[in-house]
Amino acid sequence: MKIVKAAEFTVEIDQRNEQLIDLDFDRNVLTIINDVRMNGDVALHMYTEKFDGVTLENFIVTDDEFDEAYTLVSETFISSLLKAKQRITDFHVEQKERSWFIRQEKGVVLGQQVTPIERTGIYVPGGKAAYPSTVLMNAIPAKIAGVSHIAIATPPQPDGKVNPHVLVAAKETGVECVYKVGGAQAIAAMAYGTETVRKVMKITGPGNAYVARAKKWVFGDVGIDMIAGPSEICVLADETANAAFAAADLLSQAEHDERAAAICVTTSELFAGELMTEVEMRLSDMERREIASRSISDFGRIIVVESMNEAIEVLNKIAPEHLQIMVDNPMATLPYIRNAGAIFIGPFSPEALGDYMAGPNHTLPTSGTAAFSSALGVNDFMKKSSIIHYTEEALKEVADDIIVLAEAERLTGHAESIRMRKGEAE
Fold first, then answer.
1. How far is the C-alpha of 392 from the C-alpha of 106, rounded, in Å?
2. Please, what sign has the CA dihedral across residues 402, 406, 412, 417?
3. 414 assigned to a ligand binding site
4. Strands 382-389 and 109-116
């Protein structure tokens, strides 16, 4: 982990956020997508054997496999899962928008009709870890929105089955179907449909670089939530912060991925030294220390700044996925934070709390995109239609203005449609 000055790190941010085009990578992803579009299940079988080393007779998880999953997880896990489900539900219920209408003079009615997306697909990563929390954070807001068909795609394990913790989470959140398909081929299958996989209207959920790029390529044919990059955490700390807490929180993100970024911005050089010592000490005892070590070495930074104002400027430039404020008066700092996916306030609000149990969604914008986007929520699974109703009297009152504006744009057909209703059409 490196200790750097703010100016140094600003250059690193600019370099890291540059999205370089890798034509060979894109060609590989597009080949998979087009193959699935053309060949359906045949292509899915081929890629599942190639990438997952598994030959499957059926991509759909059976009722027996769901039943078996409950025998393979602990009662403690189910209890904790249900507690998390309730807290996530309670939070997301508050987000749901409702249709509304306003009535104006002369019988004018304007409004907004809110309707759920009909079918959505959730990608749940496999490989390095199992993510039942991803199921909760995607399926619960979709259910609250009123989505009628929710499917999950997730890579099979070497035994050809899906991780039982993921299956239990799917069953408990009311997911209708789970497909044993991973990677870019899963995104293509949900976007375009195959003999087995039903086409959806929106795809959400994180994944590796192939999944992220595939989501970008299918966007427009289906909706997506976001293009998720490696996980990030920033800790804002002053001399009052607990270095052991901060180190543990930085490492909690570093263990996700070799490319995860763990960053601390601090006004105290003394704290920076203490934090460096804590990180190095705790790193050696981690179960996933190989992954975390690479992350800390390549993307771990402690940025020492001159003032809290400079610290906030740096944080808003980074626009982190997760921001933990561990300073003497965190609430005084909060109003100045413009760009962050989720903000954790005080020493007893660690990022891991948000990942599992607090309630707000943990699917958050990464790679600086918190500057213009938000956490996943209920509204991501809903559509809004504008409602317009004018009476004849009300239309005549604005008709001349519409005609003027339409003719200024040389859209004479628009103007004519208004004149007809005024009784002026030739």
1. 9
2. negative
3. yes
4. antiparallel
Has 165 been labeled as part of a binding site? no
Query: In the 8-state DSSP scheme, what is residue 207?
Result: -
Task: In whole angstroms, give the CA distance from residue 254 to residue 258.
Answer: 7
* Residues 163 and 157 sit within 8 Å (Cβ to Cβ): yes
8 A C-beta contact, residue 251 and residue 292 = yes
409 is in an annotated binding site: yes
User: In 257-291, which positions are buried (b, 16+ CB within 10 angstroms) versus exposed (e)?
Assistant: bbbbbbbbbbbbeebbebbbebbeebbeeeeebeb
Q: In the chain, what's the furthest Cα-to-Cα distance?
A: 86
d(CA 92, CA 155): 28
- What CATH number belongs to 2-19+229-372? 3.40.50.1980
Question: Domains of the chain: which residue ranges?
Answer: 2-19+229-372, 40-224, 391-422
Note whether 2-19+229-372 and 40-224 share their fold: yes
Superfamily of domain 40-224 in the CATH hierarchy: Nitrogenase molybdenum iron protein domain (3.40.50.1980)
Centroid of chain to Cα 82: 22
**256 annotated as a binding-site residue:** yes
Banded model confidence at residue 3, pLDDT cuts 50, 70, 90: confident
pLDDT digits (tens, 9 = 90+) for 77-97: 999 999 999 999 999 999 999
Catalytic residue ranges: 321-322
Of 194, 195, 407, 216, give the one whose Cα is nearest residue 203: 216
Residue 157 marked in a binding site: no
Cβ distance 9 to 266 under 8 Å?
no
pLDDT in tens, 281-336: 999 889 988 999 999 999 999 999 999 999 999 999 999 999 999 999 999 999 99
* 123 in a known ligand binding site: yes
Which distant-in-sequence residues (6+ apart) come within 8 Å of 127 by Cβ?
Answer: 155, 182, 208
CA atoms of 394 and 105, how far apart (whole Å): 8
Model pTM?
Answer: 0.91
Dump the DSSP string for 153-166: E-PPPTTSS--HHH
User: How far is Cα 277 from Cα 414, in angstroms, rounded to an integer?
Assistant: 70
**Does the annotation flag 355 for ligand binding?**
yes
Q: Could you give the C-alpha distances from 221 to 118, 186, 187, 192, in angstroms and in order?
A: 15, 15, 12, 8
